[in-house]
Amino acid sequence: MNTYKWKINAVDVHTQVGELPKVIYNVHWSYFAEDEEGNMASMIGVQSVSEPDHEKFKPFEELREADVVAWIEPMMDLEQMQSNLDSQIAEKVAPTKQTLTLLQDEPATEVE
Q1: 91, 33 Cβ separation under 8 angstroms
Q2: Domain hosting residue 48, numbered range
Q3: Degrees, nearest 5: CA angle 59-65-68
Q4: Residue pLDDT, tens place only, 77-100
């Protein structure tokens, strides 16, 4: 069974929206999976978020990663994301694809 974990890498903010300072509009995230043997896979992305409810606004300085994850997680297709990460790990454990390089042609000789 794989375990999954979010990391919020950064956020983009509007410096001011009306009376509200530092209003987040983009969340830069990473999502990780790890199996029992320590094989890992990850994906990254950016999720846009709508303007906050002025009455429920939490100042930037009080926000924690868990708060932001709670905003974006319902917008994401977690089942699809986890399936993708599971496939990446399965490919690491038992590869079915390779990238190979071709032999290089002899270097060109100069004609004098």
Answers
A1: no
A2: 3-93
A3: 65
A4: 999 999 999 999 999 999 999 999
What does the alpha-carbon distance between residue 13 and residue 61 come to, in Å, rounded to a whole number? 12
Q: Work out the widest C-alpha separation in the chain, in whole angstroms.
A: 81
pLDDT tens digits, one per residue of 19-68: 999 999 999 999 999 999 999 999 999 999 999 888 989 999 999 999 99
Q: Are 71 and 49 in contact (CB under 8 A)?
A: yes
What is the pTM (predicted TM-score) of this model?
Answer: 0.84
Whether 47 contacts 30, CB under 8 Å: no
Q: How far is CA 56 from CA 5, 43, 59, 75, in A?
A: 26, 30, 10, 19
Number of domains in the chain: 1
